[in-house]
Design goal:
With about 500 residues, this protein is mainly beta. It folds into three domains: about 5-150, Carboxypeptidase-like, regulatory domain (Immunoglobulin-like, Sandwich); about 155-240, Immunoglobulin-like (Sandwich), CATH 2.60.40.2070; about 240-360, Sandwich (Immunoglobulin-like), CATH 2.60.40. Strands 12, 13, 14, 15, 16, 17, 18, 19 and 20 form a nine-stranded mixed β-sheet that branches. Strands 4, 5, 6, 8, 9 and 10 form a six-stranded antiparallel β-sheet that branches. Strands 22, 23, 25, 26, 28 and 31 form a six-stranded antiparallel β-sheet that branches. It is about 10% helix and about 40% strand.
Length: about 500
Amino acid sequence: MRTRPASKQRALDTSAVLGAVLLGACVLVCWSVCAYVSVARGNELPEYVECRVHVTDGEGVAVAEAKVSPFGFRTRVERGSHWGWPERSHGPMPTVVTDAEGNATIRVPKHITEKLEIGTVTWIVVHDQFVEYNGDHPIDDDPAEIKLANGYRIAARAVDASSGQPITEKLYGVLSGGGISDRWTLADSGILVSRVMDIERANLRLVHLPDDGPALFSDLIMLFRPEGSRAFLKDIQLRPGTRVAGKLSDNVPRPIANGKVIASIVAGQSLDESHAWESRWQWSDVATIEADGTFEIDSLPQGDVVQVIALCDGWLSRSPTQDEIARVVDWSDASLIASFTQPQLFPLSGNMIEPIVAMEPTATLELLVLAPNGDPLEGAEVGMSPNHATFRGGSTILGSGFRAREMLTLPREELIQRWRATGNRFHGVTDSKGKTTIHNLHGRPGISLGVFHSAYEMPIENGRRSQSVSLNPGESKQITIQMQEKGTQVLGE
């Protein structure tokens, strides 16, 4: 078999893995409550399945030195589910490099938790000469046949619109379709070159992130697939964005404690639904809310719409009404979802805006956990996963957010450490009376709750070892959960 020679490889942080870890976050973080569950039960060792992957190009030629990772899984019984690699029980996600014949063998868990068997693996394959691959394959495929596509690169040169001077450092490209995690190559000449991509239509912004001063952005550039292998964008002008100097509504008592704002932008129109996600350009920032209720973000792309989620001790930004959404945007898909907190929208017009974020009180859940014999159970871990969602974007744990600037400038390892360090704020451990309290929840239906203990387990409800809790804004609710002996019921059996 002919083998395509490998060229010098970029580090894996160029791949979609990091974007999915930090952005994707969207689907997978919704399952964060399940992170407490170990695959092993008692003294049982986890079972594994040995998966083979065969990687070729479009002509069927084997691709050597492609980096293969099993990023996610779907179960046999819930094909719509999506679970991340279970690092708590299986260590860091493995990456295997294909051999000269394009083959790689990776062990993956047989069960994602208990006896809930994995049926599908989401494989990510990265190679410098080809488009990154991200796709689902049945775990029973032997091997999983993966074909890498040829694509094109974008080369760009930027100038400061105010001075006309070329920008030759700290210049970044951000593509639509979750491209914040991409690492472009910036030459000493100031030419910025993208990864290999294969998008029929995409949106791009060039961004300059100086050490001092606000970020500079280009206009949103619409890209179509070039006829050749490279598109060259010359002398793209970059300008400062809009400064956001906002505050919380006056119904929130001052001083504010533990306040945080997540500002998200989703821009770009799609030609048709089949390319909707690939055409959506995203940016995000996070700001601290001061004691007096004010917050500031120095630069966001002018002309776009910022989506704002704000929270502090006891208070949370309320979701807008459908009429309030319609007064700002005409997105047909900007619909409200009862179980999510959704952002308020503010147009980024001019050099500065001063939005006022309408707030409502948060809810509190007081939990009593009992052992099977009815005694209070000390040391039980409780985790909840209220979610917020951006319009035309994804969802994540309420109050989670990231700074796009950091995703572009910090090493991958530091980014992942920061993400892990945030933990789950909706977490508690029961005391000697079997009690714990979870604060700052949103008043929404369908909040997932899980209770975990070394000796006991929650009863299974609707095929999951968790319970759904509904709350109202400002409500304080008390519930009791009685645990059962481990092994009383087994997921997947």
